[in-house]
Write a structure and sequence with these properties.
Layout (H helix, E strand, L loop, with lengths): L8 E6 L22 E7 L3 E2 L5 E2 L8 E4 L5 E5 L2 E7 L3 E5 L2
Antiparallel strand pairs: 1-2, 1-7, 2-5, 3-4, 5-8, 6-7
């Protein structure tokens, strides 16, 4: 798959969430919420400022990030679900 986001958008692959709760119960797919955490797969070039300059992105491919719950557009490519979000919807980078 080749995908290049435009401007200040990033392509995020959802992190796999555990199917078991902390108490040991299995959670059915219909009851699961989509995770707010994922790995950045592709990054656009950046945002164009009001004075016409390119502002580089703060995130890069491979970063694990948290993002707003209701942000972005969901897409499916090669049977994998991704999310396209603006950089401003990324809340932070999780450092290892």
């Amino acid at each position: 798959m080749k995908f290049k986001p435009l401007r200040d958008r990033v392509l995020v692959k959802y992190s796999e969430e555990s199917e078991k709760s902390a108490g040991g119960l299995y959670i059915p797919d219909t009851a699961k919420e989509k995770p707010q955490k994922g790995e950045i797969i592709a990054v656009g070039p950046g945002r164009i400022t009001e004075d016409g300059k390119l502002q580089k992105m703060d995130v890069k491919v491979g970063d694990v990030v948290l993002f707003d719950k209701y942000s972005g557009s969901k897409i499916t490519m090669d049977n994998v679900e991704y999310l396209i979000v603006r950089e401003e919807d990324v809340l932070g980078i999780i450092e290892k």
